[in-house]
Design a protein that fits this description.
Order of helices and strands of chain A: HHHHHHH
Strand order of the largest sheet of chain B: 1-2
Number of helices of chain A: 7
Oligomer: heterodimer
Order of helices and strands of chain B: HHHEEHHHHHHHHHHHHHHHHHHHHHEEHH
Number of strands of chain A: 0
Largest sheet of chain A: none
Structural class of chain B: mainly alpha
Number of helices of chain B: 26
Strand content of chain A: under 5%
Shape of chain B: globular
Radius of gyration of chain B: 26 Å
Number of strands of chain B: 4
Strand content of chain B: under 5%
Number of domains of chain A: 1
Distance between the termini of chain A: 54 Å
Largest interface: A-B, 15 and 10 residues
Chain lengths: ~210, ~650
Amino acid sequence: MTHQLNALLMVVLAINLFALGTSRILALIRIVAFQGAVLAILPLLVHQHLNAAAAVVVLLTIALKGFAIPAIMIRALRDAQIKREIEPLVGFLPSIILGALGTAFSLLFAGQLPLAAQHSGSLLVPTSIATVLTGFILLTTRYKALTQVVGYLVLENGIFVFGMLLIESMPLVVEMGVLLDLFVGIFVICIITNHINRAFSSMDTRRLVTLKE
Amino acid sequence: MSSVWMVLTAICLLGLSGAPGCLLSCRSSAGQRVATLLMAIGGVLGVVGVGTSLGGGSETSLSVPWFLPWGRFAVGIDALAAVFLVPVFIVPVLGSIYGLGYWSQPEHPDNGRRLGVSYGLLAGSMALVVIARDGALFLIAWEVMALAAYFAATAEEHENADVRRAGWVYLIATHIGTLCLLAMFALWRSETGSFALAPALVMSSEVAGTIFVLGLIGFGCKAGLMPLHVWLPGAHANAPSHVSAVMSGVMLKMGIYGIVRITALLPVGPTWWGGVLLAVGAVTGVAGIAYAIGQHDIKRLLAYSSIENVGIIAMGLGLALLGRAQGRGDLVLLGLAGALLHVWNHSLFKSLLFFNAGAIIHATHTREMDRMGGLAKRMPWCAALFAVGAVAICALPPLNGFASEWLMYVGLFRSLSSGGEVAMAAVALATIGALAVACFVQVLGTVYLGEPRSDAGDHAYDPQASMIGPMVVLACGCAAVGVFPMMAAPLLERATQDWMDLSGPVPAIEALAPLRWITVMGLSFVGLIGAAVLAWKMLSRSRTIGTTGTWDCGYAQPTARMQYTGSSFGDTLVGLFAFILWPKKYWPEVRGVLARRSRFRSVVPDAILDRLVVPAFDLVGKYLPRLRMLQQGQTQVYVLYVLAIVIVLYMWGAIGA
C-alpha cells in the first residue's frame, strides 16, 4: 500500500514544481485541479476500513476540486480576459528552484520528526510541508488575483495531505466541512476578482494598496 | 424598599436623567427641566437610601450572578461608601439646577442634550463606583464614569480647539490610569481567586505592595496626585462650569475613594505605604497651590487648587496608613476622619467656587482674571458667596475647611510621640494653608474688588435665582459643617472602623480632638463679626459717604488699568517658587529713541505636561510611525508575515526542545 501511496505523492510533488514554473494561468488552474483530484484518491489508500461514507467523500472531493472549482475559476479567467501571469515578484525558474529547495528541506525536516511507526516509510509529511510551502511561494510572489486563489488552493491541498495522518481519528465530516468552506471561499473570491477587475481595470492585487488606510 | 434598592433606583434615575431630553426638541428647555427633576428625585432617594442604610436593619448589600462570565453584580453600602455617596447624590443635583440657567438648552441647541445625557451618566456611574463590591463591576462603572466625564467636559469641542486638546489629554491620562487598575484587579484576582472586593486576610507583602502601587498610580491619575495631574487643569478649565464643579468636587474623590477602598481591603501594610502617600500628598499640596497662584485663568486656578486639596486629603490618608502600620488607633482615626471630612468639605466649597466662577464667566465673557475687577458692587450675591467659599477653602474658622484640617493637624502633632519625621508634614500643611490664603486674596481682590477692567465687567449683574440658589445651599453646607463638625463625627468613626478593625476600644474623635470647642469658637466668632458690623453700621449711619477716585493723588486721569493685577500680586510668590513652576516671561523690547509698541506677557505652564509629557509624546509620534512600513497593504507581504511567524515559532519550539 505504501508504494502506491508514495507514487501518488511523488506525482503531487511534481505538480507542485510544475505549478511554480508555468506562466499560463489556465494551465496552472488545470494542473492544480488535477492535483486536487489525485489527492482525493489518497483516503482510499490510507484508510484501513473503507466504507460507503468514505467513498462518497472521495467522489465529492474529486467533483469539487477536480471539476467545480476549476470551472468557476476558468469562468472568472475568461471574464477577466487575461491569460498569463506576467512579471511575478520572483521569476518562474527561481520559483522552481525555491520550490525544490523547499521540498528538500521538508524531506530532511520530516526525517527529524518523531512520527508514529505506521507513517515512517511514507512521504505524507514531507509532501504536505512541501505543498504548503509551494502554496506560500505562489501567494507571496504572484500578483494576479486568480493566481493567488490558486495559491490558497495549493496551500489547502498541503493541509489535506497532512490530514491523512489523522484520518483514523478525524471524522470525514470534518474534511467535508473544510471542503465546503474552500468551495464557498473560492466561489466568493472569484466573484470579488471580477469586481476588482471592474473597479481597478486590472487583476493586479498591487492596486489594492490604495485601500490600506 | 430596602436601602440598597433605593440607592440602585437613585443610580438609575441619575444615570438615565438625560435620556427623555433626547426625544424632545433641542430648542425647548423641557428636556432639561425633566432631567433636573429626575436628578432631584434620584438625589433625594439616594440620600434617604444612604441614611436608612446607616440606621441599620435595612438590607445594605446585594449580590447576584450576571451575564458576564466573570464577577457578579455585587453592591454594598457601608459607612465608608456612605461618606462618598453623600456628595455624589448632592453636588450633581445642585449642578443640574445651576445648569438650567448656566447652560440652558435653548441657548445651546447643538450640545445641550449631549451634555444632559453625559452629565446624568457621570453622576450615576460615580455612585455605582462607590457601591460596587466586585472588581469587574467596579471597572465597568469606572470606565463609564471616565467616558461620561469626557463627553460632558468636551461639550464645546466643535467650537473650540482648546476643548478638544484638553479632552484628548484627559482621555489618554484616564486610560493610562485604567490600565494600571486593570493590572491591579488582575493581580487581585490571581491572588485572592475572585474579583470580589472582600478583605484579603493573607497576602504576601510583595504582592500587596505591588497592588498598592498600581492602585496609587491608577487612582492617583483620577484624583490628580502630582505628577499624574496633567489632565486636570485643562479639562476643568474648558468644561462647562457645573461639569467642572462635579468633576472637581466629586469625580476626583472617586480616585481618593479607590485608594481608601483598596487599602481597606489589603492586609496591614508596611510603614512605607503611609510615608509615600504622605510625601506625595505634601508635594501635591504645595506644588498645586503654588501653580494656582501663577494662573491667570480663574478656572485653571480653581483646578490647581483642587489638586492642592487632593494633596491635603492624601496627607490625611497617609497619616492613617502610617498609624495602621504602627498600630496607632488615634493616628488612624484622626488621619482618616480628617481626610474623609475634607472630601466632604472640598466637594462643598469647590463646587461653590466653580459655580461662582461660572457666574462670573457668564457675566464677563472671559476666564482671564486680569480682565475682570470691580464685580463686588455689580454682583453682590456672588461676591458674598465667593467670600464664603474662599474663607472655607483657606481653612479659616469658622467655616468647614478648618475643621477637617484641624483634625489632621492634631493627628500630625500626636505622631510626634513616635518620632518627628511625620510631624514635618504639619509644616507642609501650614505652608499650603498660608499659600491658599494668598491665592484667594489674589482672586477676590482681582475679580471682585477695585474697578472693572472691561466693558463687559462694567455691565455685569448677578445671575438668575436658579444659579444663585445652589450656591446658597453649598455656602450653608460650608457653614453648617464648619460650625457643627461633631454632627459628622459618628459617621466618620464608623467609616474608620470599616476601613480598619481597630483592636480594642475605639477612641472617639471627641476625646482626641474636642470638636465642641470649634462650635463654641465658631459661634462666638460669628457673633463678634456680627456685632462689629452692626456697630460699624450704627456709627456710620450719621456720616456722609463721599466718592472719590481710588488713585486720586496727582493723576489727572486714573484708569482701571492702573490697578494692581492678579499676576502682579502673585509675582513675588511665583518668583519664590520658580524652581517648581518655571514661569515664562516675555519682556517688552524697548529700543531706540522712540520705542515701538510692545507687550509684556507672563505664563506659568504646567511643567510636567509641557516639559515632560508633551515632548515624550512628540518623540513617540516621531519614531513609532516607522512601524507603519509593516503595513504595506499588499496581501502577498501579509502572507509572508504569516510564514515568517510560522518559521519563528518552529525555531522557538526547536530551541525550547
